[in-house]
């Protein structure tokens, strides 16, 4: 089966995909850590979405992963859009999850410049705890908020500011009509970061896009409703992976 590459979002990391272990029952799953975040928090951060994409493609090439399905969450959704732009022949199917084509997010819970100023004033740890709470419908009371916040707190101030700058300075709107791969746009209907206008733009502009909306979830559907999330991903990817044989148990994680 075609491997599935998972690209986390701002202040995320490979550990956030623990509840997606069932996706590895029939294919290799490569969950990466972006420079400056997660298990790669010690690496120099990147402040441009195209550079994140190029770095990820290069690391996949180095591992011998030439063709893959691709899932990107939030800022990771911006990165995977750039990966499709840079290497369209390498991507089988694309999942754009809780993301959009505009780096300056209309309706975001606060402007990016405000987030940058608050990060400088509050420090990295407080910023990570505060922002990651907005990803859950029930904020700090959500069952998986503590684990998510712990991953977010791996990021230092430099990485936080670089990630915010990367999003602020990026737009993928012009490329959407040229996305040729089958695409699933997946969204929680209570997402505080990406409003419906961003989701609708992806769905209506990408030629072969499907839409899945999960009710009663915010920005972290994969943690709030993992069974539904996993079923949607499996259902979308299954047509490419029908091999006629029994599924393998292969699953891999990599810090790229």
From TrEMBL:
Signal peptide: none annotated. Residues 4-231 form the AB hydrolase-1 domain. Keywords: Hydrolase. The keyword Hydrolase applies. One of its GO terms (molecular function) is hydrolase activity. SUPFAM superfamilies: alpha/beta-Hydrolases (SSF53474). This is Alpha/beta hydrolase fold protein. It comes from Dinoroseobacter shibae (strain DSM 16493 / NCIMB 14021 / DFL 12).
